[in-house]
Amino acid sequence: MSPTSRRVPLSVLDLAPRSQGMTPREALEETTRLAQEADRLGYHRYWMAEHHGSETFMSSATALLLGHLAQHTRDIRLGSGGVMLPNHSPLMVAEYYGTLATLYGDRFDLGLGRAPGTDPMTAAALARSSGHLPDFASEVGQLRAYLGDPQPGARVRAIPGEGTHVPLWMLGSSTGGAQVAAALGLPFSFASHFAPDQLREALLVYRDRFRADAETAQVARPTTMAGVNVLVAPTQEEADHLFTSAQLMAIRIRSGQPAPLDPPVEDLADVVPTQLLPLAQAHQAVRAVGTPDLVVERLEEFAAQHELDELIVTTYTYDPQLRRRSFRLLAEAWGMQPRAD
């Protein structure tokens, strides 16, 4: 480890991806297997991201999936990465996650985002509020209140939910989420795994404007996490080859043609029009792909460069067994302590 690098906690972000030829049930079964493996290996958190109307991702009903994973894991923290709050009422979110905390204890994080997590037509079918910053910040405050201590005389209550104090995280892919996280004194997770351009600016805004004295504050100092695309394999050649499935996924999403994950290809230029190739590079610029030692080195450098408190990594492979292998190789190289059976 270099003098400037840091071994911060590593967590997992999952959207329950589905590969070509795989049923939705099989995709969810693979997510369960990965969560169990992440729990055993010693990863810090396992977050599921809300996404709707996609042939690629099966993670639309995030709270239901987290309840399922809670039954099949033991120690790893579980959470939303995140709940897209404009799609839901704060009361209902408090009830869902308050119920999870009531059933399974202090194992849950509630990451909140203001993007719809889908295409415009599906967003219109889901939308309950605008997601504009002032409205969003107000609804986060409402949610925090519902999960806080019971208020005498309150006419609207989250039951179960009140008194559970489920930890809140603010998610963001721009400076907007950073502003809300700072104003409310919440920890902040930046989606650099798919929106890297404003990472530095968003972290600067968050740290500069952070209010530890906010009524809603949950951390005493700016606390940051960022997403990284990761794929680990025994050789660089295999890692690069397997990563073409993730690159094809990014190109499909950015060009409006989402589909289940494609098998890896020898050369992207053989299957993708030349003008679309830059989409994958832009979408996945924050990535660590290669052998275990190389990936560890890049993750350490990224964490140190941006002074991050935690990294959350996401991995896509056509073969789910190779996805689990990637997380296993990373855990071993990172020096994680496996959890006892």
UniProtKB/TrEMBL annotation:
Segments forming domain Luciferase-like: 17-303
UniProt record similarity statement: To bacterial alkanal monooxygenase alpha and beta chains.
Q: Which NCBIfam families match?
A: oxido_grp_1 (TIGR03558)
> What is the designated name of this protein?
Alkane 1-monooxygenase
Organism, by scientific name, is Ornithinimicrobium pekingense
